[in-house]
Amino acid sequence: MALTQIKFAPGVDKQDTSVGAVGRWTDSDNVRWRYGLPEKVGGWQSLLTDTIVGVARKQHAFVDTEGNRYIAIGTDKFLLIYFEGQLFDITPLKTKITSVVMSSTNESKEVTLTFSAAHNLESGDIVFIDNVTVPSGVGLTNAAFEDKLFQVTRVTSDLIAIVTGTQSATGTAGGGSCDITPYEPVGPAAQSYGYGYGVSPYGGTVQGAATTALNGALLADTAGTGGSGTAVTVVSTTGFPTAGTIAIANELITYTSKSATQFLGITRGAKGTATFGTSNGQAHSSSDTVTNATDFSGWGDAVEANTITLEPGLWSLSNFGQVLVATIANGKTFTWNAGIAARLSTRASTTTTDFPTTNNPTATRVTLISPTTRHLIHFGTETTIGSASTQDDMFIRFSEQEDINDYSILATNTAGSQRLQDGTKIMGSLVAKENILIWTDNALYTMKFVGAPFTFGFEQVGTNCGLIGKNAAIEIDGVAYWMGSNGFFSFDGTVNTLPCSVEDFVYDDADTTKGQQITAGINNLFTEVTWWYPTQGSDFNNRYVVYNYGVTNNPLPMGNWYTGTNTNSIRTTWIDSLVYPKPYATAYNSSGTGSFPAIIGETGLGSSVLFEHESGTDQVNPDGSVTTLTSFVQSYDFSLQTDQGAAEYFLAMRRFLPNFKILQGDATVTISVADYPADPNTNTTLSPFTITSTTTKVDTRARGRYAALKIENTGASQSWRFGTFQADLQPDGRR
After folding, report:
1. Rounded distance between C-alpha atoms, residue 455 and residue 474, angstroms
2. Number of structural domains the chain divides into
3. Which of 202, 263, 302, 581 is most enclosed, with most CB atoms within 10 A?
4. Signed CA dihedral, 342, 344, 349, 354: sign only
5. Domain assignment present for 68
């Protein structure tokens, strides 16, 4: 018989069934559509031999007046500069604390540092140590501590603990001393929820709360360590009250007494924090952090649901000319001047020469620079500057024009303020073509320069279209695209709901309570907007969805969308190819150990890799090794079309002609069949087939009421773009 050509429209349709999605592809990974044809995405390679400590949450590329290019990278712990293939630490520092007492314990890697006053440090904070004199006679050296970074591992009101790394003390002694310079804290790595206690900078702890670590695992039951008894075993109970409450992750455990290394008389899952629907506690691994929760403010009646959002550590990054303006979410604003000679050895600060921010608010959700009027704008900020307790999540404050440190509202200047009404908090902002766009959790506003006496005019242009997370919106060519808690939207002067052929697939499984971790990125080389997001049960981003806004040759009622789950493809930040010729992005490994900045005794911070995209065919890692980048696309279940209708007859496929526009290496083609829509597809006896550039035809034996096509690659150095699918299809009975 004559060959039948099966046609497929670009993109993926997951709103329909695999039979109902006629003429569409139904699944994909690491595939994009170009000229209407599916192809494997380009590869990526690491730009550094180092990996970054922590999870990167923001990238910002800019150029100084000499033409030097930079990328500012904000993580949950650091602010870094990427310049000419190297990383530089410009994280702002807090005030140095001098004459801190050092003490050691025999055969322990832990060193305690005792302060004469409250230190306001928390477990996980980063500290720089210098001017070191170690306790004598304990086998430790000054060089092991001098001019090095450490992670705080345990905290009481007047003491912190650090880990020496591989060096254990040979005796117990005090009398040592050092100076400590804490890094400005940013926030936790992941977004989570609390259970009714007071919120602090890390959302749910209190300054100076004692911490220790589990010495043995806890099971999800009512018992103690190892699933037996009524005791929780830890490294040390020093600093904890005789009786009280401890917190491990989101579980509370009460205890009636303690020994040196155990909490006794325990009750698991206190105050509604047990595993949902049971009286059991939650599972915890050995070495998990244990925090004194006895004095947490607001502990009250039992709750059965999460009630308090604990947002991750985020940054706002923008430019005032060649000066980087960096704001910690719900914290201070700092500047870094790329125009000075010692820029790479100078840290971001509130007192940067000629560009101070000492008069800026101290608690702001989001900042940006108005590029045409050069105002520094604070969104979700303090009504009284310098008083963090007055932070209003819907309040906006902007500086004098050309002066990012002047907020005096006078008749003779352009500084001012405004409060928005629709929503509970400002989520994000972007500079668009003619406006500044401001999203709350429910609405979209425009902010436009109007001159004296009001400076800026504000207009609400949409409702029920709020932004799900600070970094979930992107703008290109005057059009903004964003992800809300209930759908995808665009703004080109009018708010539009984006018809989405994968909407249910995304939202049925997305963890929208972790919206602040979602990141959006534009790849203008291929007219793509991508959102990376976490699913239910995942602490970090683990899926992505793509909208191709540039497909105009084949209009589709549900848009041109595609999805993916390949772990190698998940990103936490993205910048488009503007300052640099290709897109740059970061990937996070929660179990990794970063190498920059070097931290002694680092535990549990994870690592990020900076990649250049659209380079090669695979993933090139920091150590030079190659990870194969696999890809696939799956078609709808097509049937034989006859005068009696679709699927009236079984089809028999005798052969097909492979047609690839591009084929580097091999591709694998699989034909699967099913007798009824409810039946699972099964591969034909001869599938899969390996296709090369010289393959002209493939003989096969496929029989079923429905057939589907899958194209994929699983090997390194492979790339492909599919063309058309032509097959010899014959009717083969009605049974």
Report:
1. 25
2. 5
3. 263
4. positive
5. no
166, pLDDT greater than 60: yes
8 Å CB contact between 439 and 482: yes
319 and 460 share one domain: yes
Tell me, yes or no, whether 434 and 479 share the same domain.
Answer: no
Residue 531 is which amino acid?
W
In this predicted model, what pLDDT tens digit does every residue of 297-341 receive, in sequence order?
Answer: 443 333 334 445 689 999 999 999 999 999 999 999 999 999 999
Averaged pLDDT, 204-233: 82
Q: What is the pTM of this model?
A: 0.85
Beta strands 154-155 and 561-564: pairing type? unpaired
Least confident of 156-165, 181-190, 372-381: 156-165
Per the omega criterion (within 30 degrees of 0), is the bond before 10 cis? no
Q: Which of 48-57, 303-312, 624-633, 698-707 is predicted least confidently?
A: 303-312
Which neighbouring-strand residues pair with 491?
480, 495
Q: For residue 2, how far is the Cα from the chain centroid?
A: 52
Q: What is the mean pLDDT of residues 677-690?
A: 85
* Amino acid letter, residue 367: T
Half-sphere exposure of 337 (CA within 13 A, CB side): 13
How do strand 416-419 and strand 584-589 relate by DSSP bridges?
unpaired
Shared domain check, 664 and 698: yes
H or E element, residue 346? none
485 and 554 co-located in one domain? yes
Average pLDDT on 282-287 reads: 87
458 and 525 fall within a common domain: no
Q: Where are the beta strands (DSSP E) in 251-363?
A: 251-255, 257-258, 262-264, 289-292, 308-310, 315-320, 323-328, 333-337
DSSP 3: P
One domain for residues 479 and 608: yes
3-state secondary structure at position 98: strand
Please tell me what DSSP assigns to residue 389.
G
Range 508-511, long-range pairs (CB < 8 A, 24+ positions)? 509/535, 509/536, 509/543, 510/534, 510/535, 510/536, 510/543, 511/535, 511/536, 511/537, 511/538
Domain that holds residue 21: 4-41+630-731
The residues near 228 (Cβ < 8 Å, ≥ 6 apart) are none
Report the alpha-carbon distance of residue 369 to residue 356 in Å, rounded. 15
Dig out the tokens for 575 from the structure: 């910048």
pLDDT one-digit tens code per residue, 392-442: 999 999 999 999 999 999 999 999 999 999 999 999 999 998 899 999 999
Decide which of 269, 285, 310 is a domain's last residue.
310
3-state secondary structure at position 143:
helix
Going by C-beta distance under 8 Å and a sequence separation of 6 or more, which residues neighbour residue 344? Answer: 81, 83, 88
